[in-house]
Amino acid sequence: MNTCSEHRTPSPTWAVAPEAVSTSDATRLRRAYYAEVAGRYWKREVTEAEIDQGLLDFPDDGLEPPTGQFVVGRLDGEALACGGIRLLDAVTAELTRVYVDRRARGTGGGAALLGALEAQSRALGAERVRLDTRSDLVEARALYARHGYAEIPAYNSGPYAEHWFEKRLV
Question: What is the CATH number of domain 14-130?
């Protein structure tokens, strides 16, 4: 009889749910998202004023029903991830603001966000999900590829768009 017991650390638990972009957790996460993507692009820390301006320049329009949805991901109860979808047309949703806090990367948060956002897209009638991203966001591009998103020709002319992806939902 084996008296030695295995001790395993429990896996972190992600819960992702719809949340208004105006809640304190959603606002904090959207600001962190913008600070990271702008900082990586400019190769420096961004100021609070630059974050404020960026959020004005790129508003979160359409990220609520009936045109979209915003979600917040919580790891063991702590809000550490977010993302949104908006309908581009009756059958096409677009992913935006997908972000996982650095402290929680590698714990399944990106996959949990994508699953929730794809489910929200289906609920809104979308048959496919599209997104654009930049070349320097290599982790994001790898995440999308791992989850069945394929590169497609440009579907928009966003000022920072360098790669476009799509995944069929039906």
Answer: 3.40.630.30
Segment 2-23, tens digit of pLDDT:
444 455 556 779 999 999 999 9
Q: C-alpha distances in angstroms, 142 versus 110, 125, 147?
A: 11, 26, 9
Give mean pLDDT, residues 141-167. Answer: 97
Residue 159, preceding bond cis, omega within 30 degrees?
A: no
> Judging by DSSP bridges, how do beta strands 128-133 and 92-100 pair with one another?
parallel
Q: Is 128 in contact with 92 (CB distance < 8 Å)?
A: yes
Q: What is the pTM of this model?
A: 0.91
Cα–Cα distance between 36 and 49 in angstroms, integer? 14
Q: Contact, 130 vs 164, CB < 8 A?
A: yes
Cα dihedral 95/97/103/106 (nearest 10): 10
